[in-house]
Amino acid sequence: MPDFVAPQVDVPALTEVLDGPHAEIRDLCRRKLIEHAGLLDDAQRLDRDGYRERVLQTLLQLTDAGATTLGFPKRYGGGGDLGAAIAAFETMAFGDLSLLVKIGVQFGLFGGAILQLGTERRHDRYLADVVAGRLLGCFAMTEQGHGSDVQGLQTVARYDPGREQFIIDTPVDSAHKEFIGGAAAHARMAVVFAQLEVGGAGHGVHALLVDLRDRNGRLLPGIRIVDDRQKIGLNGVDNGRIWFDRVTVDRENLLDRYASVSADGVYSSPIESPDRRFFTMLGTLVQGRVSVAGASVNAAKVALTIAIRYADRRRQFTGPNGTEELLLDYGMHQRRLLPRLARTYGLHFAQEQLVAEYDDVFTHPDTADPKRRRALEARAAGTKALGSWLATDTIQACREACGGAGYLSENRFDALRADTDVFTTFEGDNHVLLQLVAKGLLTNYASEFNDLDQLGMVRFVAGHAVETVIERTAAHSLMERVRDLLPAGEDRGDARTGLLDPSYHSAMFRWREEHRIDGLARRLKRGAEDGMNAAELFSRCQQHAVEAAVAHVERQVLEAYEQKLASLPDGANKTALCQLRDLFALSVIEADRGWWMEHGRLSSQRAKAITREVDELLRKTRPLAVQLVDAFGVPEEAVHAAFLH
Amino acid sequence: MPDFVAPQVDVPALTEVLDGPHAEIRDLCRRKLIEHAGLLDDAQRLDRDGYRERVLQTLLQLTDAGATTLGFPKRYGGGGDLGAAIAAFETMAFGDLSLLVKIGVQFGLFGGAILQLGTERRHDRYLADVVAGRLLGCFAMTEQGHGSDVQGLQTVARYDPGREQFIIDTPVDSAHKEFIGGAAAHARMAVVFAQLEVGGAGHGVHALLVDLRDRNGRLLPGIRIVDDRQKIGLNGVDNGRIWFDRVTVDRENLLDRYASVSADGVYSSPIESPDRRFFTMLGTLVQGRVSVAGASVNAAKVALTIAIRYADRRRQFTGPNGTEELLLDYGMHQRRLLPRLARTYGLHFAQEQLVAEYDDVFTHPDTADPKRRRALEARAAGTKALGSWLATDTIQACREACGGAGYLSENRFDALRADTDVFTTFEGDNHVLLQLVAKGLLTNYASEFNDLDQLGMVRFVAGHAVETVIERTAAHSLMERVRDLLPAGEDRGDARTGLLDPSYHSAMFRWREEHRIDGLARRLKRGAEDGMNAAELFSRCQQHAVEAAVAHVERQVLEAYEQKLASLPDGANKTALCQLRDLFALSVIEADRGWWMEHGRLSSQRAKAITREVDELLRKTRPLAVQLVDAFGVPEEAVHAAFLH
Lengths: 645, 645
Known about the structure:
The structure is a homodimer. In chain A, 57% of the residues are buried. Among the domains of chain A are: 137-275, Butyryl-CoA Dehydrogenase, subunit A, domain 2 (Beta Barrel); 430-484 and 498-625, Butyryl-CoA Dehydrogenase, subunit A, domain 3, CATH 1.20.140.10. Chain A has helices at 11-19, 23-35, 38-45, 48-64, 82-92, 97-117, 120-132, 274-283, 287-311, 331-363, 370-401, 403-407, 413-420, 430-443, 458-462, 466-472, 475-485, 502-529, 534-566, 572-591, 593-598, 604-621, 625-630, 636-639; strands at 137-140, 156-160, 165-169, 177-181, 189-198, 201-211, 223-227, 239-244, 247-250, 260-261, 267-268, 315-318, 324-326. In chain A, 55% of the residues lie in helices and 10% in strands. In chain A, strands 1, 2, 3, 5, 6 and 9 form a six-stranded mixed β-sheet that branches. Chain A has a three-stranded antiparallel β-sheet with strand order 4-8-7. A two-stranded antiparallel ribbon of chain A has the order 10-11. By secondary structure, chain A is α+β, with helices and mostly antiparallel strands. Chains A and B meet through strand 12, helix 10, helix 11, helix 12 and helix 13 of A and strand 12, helix 10, helix 11, helix 12 and helix 13 of B. Chains A, B: Residues 506-642 form the Acyl-CoA oxidase C-terminal domain. Chains A, B: Belongs to the acyl-CoA oxidase family. Chains A, B: Its EC number is 1.3.3.6. Chains A, B: Residues 283-442 form the Acyl-CoA oxidase C-alpha1 domain.
């Protein structure tokens, strides 16, 4: 490395590429992060109550500045721009994450639910207050007994036609709402998800507006709230548990875009199928997963910025020339950090596509094709899962790569790690989400599956339709097609030929995806034919479902890289991003090479050549590494690691 | 699973197997954990100063009860039993880990250094006070500028023959001592590691006793200490930074087992080679790594106890029969938890062997063969690395497997995760330790390497001897021998034949280890022959060195399983442990199957068969899982997860 003229990246131009269509909003948020950077210190200094209050006040200031409500219609004081709203949220993820989650709860979940599940009358009544931060709310979906299985939740909202009111109850202790951000201190109102009962008939889960506190912050009758107190992280968010004891709300408090109840107690909905209705309602809340995905990727960027800058100045162990070597010149250190850098860039580009699609679909919600909406939901689920695991894994690797210094809270990994840890769980457990993605992949083969549950394959496998679906899969022909795409490099003697050919990466990723989906379908079919107990069959197929989904999302990430590269002019930045794309693609193949070898798509010679090529790419990327993290554009005040100053 | 008569484990008998030779001590510590269980709550409740004080008071109470000083000679009030000391330390790792680390600092590091590096005169003067907890101390080795590279540290101790004193200085700011447990508040004295200079000549790193505070806790002249304040975890330990400004200590404060300075300034040492002297001194401190390894494995046990019990009672998603399924009946959930359970058992047995060897070597320090000491040091380094990664990985997997509930501090993962995180870093960064192990493996091939540095291969590669060593390796013949051991299952048609044959596991593990060492040696040789820059060569070989070391340690774990099994009578417990051993062995092979396939030791058919066998083993282990964690014998009061009550 020392005798080498370091190649250059045009950092500002690369930041422009990364910032994409909402660069102005991102820059506004960067300025806000700088302005409120004191919060990162206060987070360590204040006690829990003080920290919560500090977060709330910062939220209100940002709201005044218009940085948190870009997604609401202009007529209620919002910005009328969904894409910009996500861009702002992602950028704020460079800073304190309690603040971010508090913003997400108030505007994404609480305000978002009113916007998406309510009709104009509710919008007119509440949204201006929500957008102005005058009405603080929470989103009471999760129960202690039911987290990812939303359809199973047990809180009841029973219609009483005599009083023209709903009576809301927590029927058993485990049905209390759990982990509700805002509930413990600040929320005056909640969107409560409950099983709706009208005239003795159950209509499934619906959302209602329920007052929790009066204007003085006192709990209203029938409401019991217990503070969740200390959590691993996000302690600036006031999470709590809520029990309802015969709490009454007016009939119009039912958010009625997808269902309403007449005064005399007749239930009606524009969507006949209860399952489809449920999933349509949930589908409107996809913004939460899109937001968490973006926040995860940006938290990973902060960690990489710290660890790579540190590794480029920290020297340890004397080399042969008598001076101590930089950590980043050690091959092992490159292995620990640079493939994660490449993956972070890839997930950034995948996230950019997801946001564009979300913006497009939700800006014209009534004309959007239902299939496109489902594809968006699956994409959001998959990107959230891989993005949040990226964050957990990358932050941990970066902490360890900074040694003992990384363990001091002043060097930022403490908060980053603790706060993002729950991202793998909230907005849907990653393993559950990936099963949702896998189910979507199967249904692509058989459209009649569209109306089945989306939250797990238990019901899917248990359903009667298993056999029909499987029979219709076109997996085999797809696989044949993909096989033909594989380059002939394997046969041409040199195992390294074509390893950097993007069409090779693409063919490998596609083949893995298709083969895994096909394998999953065949397993399900075989099990069903053998009369295997459905629960047992599901249990046995779960790992395969998750693996198929991971292959699918990684293929999307690779394609996002490709499409971004296709849009760029030639030059140093494109060359650097091509290199990162190669590093991402080959690292994925290297990590999963056993699978490709098992399935005859990779020879042992070529597998070894891939490892050599990855090593070569690491050495080529090393001199660019600091510039590549600089291009993320994390403001210095948000990097906030004492040992870099 | 439901139609299945669950097999049984004899839990008390299995606990006896796990507790091994020091069962009484372990039970004493369990009682102490119960007695002091309030500390786990106080850790969350108290502020930092209060928590530190609470930890100190608990340490003193445990010391009065004789639970912390078993490793010191009886004549100073200790228990005279090194193995028992480690057993006690490991057991205390079920409880609050700040307390554990505080015990480790006071008795293992501070007291241990006086014991190992001092001679009788020092022992007589200090050890009774140390053992009684009257003299609190710290271990000032690490500097901000030099962590794992101890030989590079810069604090200076210069002998002044006029005053017959050493003058201790922090020559540059980055040479301040960093992360010193006990320094910020409680320690009155420090064992300070410094470069010894006598008469203008440097003699390398030596340890001296330095007073930090007077009896009233006031810092002495020339001592500056800054509190490290908040850390990711272990906030009950008062870590701090120390600067020395012309601090003088008497001549006899040099710990003089391996070196002394006469009044008129003549340096002498029983060990002539400075390198060998340095590594001999460090080698006597191996107890720290042995202790951290054991603590790591036991912290993983606590996490598994919580997550597996939770998964055996938590139901989520309605199955086909209309009831909700237990988490532990899901194949994916088994995949997440049970291979880690098997690995934890394996590392427990490996740790037991390590402790026995440590006990044996250090109980008779003067007769121990130097080779055996070096083997012990390598074993401690490797077990510490794999043990601490096991803890980090297992605790995180368990947290995620408990979903949002796992994120609440009251459910224990918060402290477990945060406190153990630094175990991968302290007592030597894991990556550095594994390179030390790898170097040991190379030196086994060429005994003249024994005297080279042990802390990294930079110096090794840079040395002149590279070629000679490599020429002498006997790797090839070893590999041939191992190849013959491989069973013929591959050829016999059925890919599953012999997968549960322990000799198959053993042959696979050994072959991987030997082949990786050989590959590493060949790479070093080739690079040296090609005249590659030594730093570059080292950088390129680092990953291979770490992989060789991991293969070596995993082979030791497998053998520890084997040896334990060989000592057990037939019966349900032995059957269960055989199953866990199979799960451990096949999970390792499955995870690394790409490597074995690349090297022609595994066919694609057999690789797939291994995955099927792992799945089968998971299903067989599932009904035993709760009993297998019960057998760890973590007291209920130490499990301390609110959601299990």
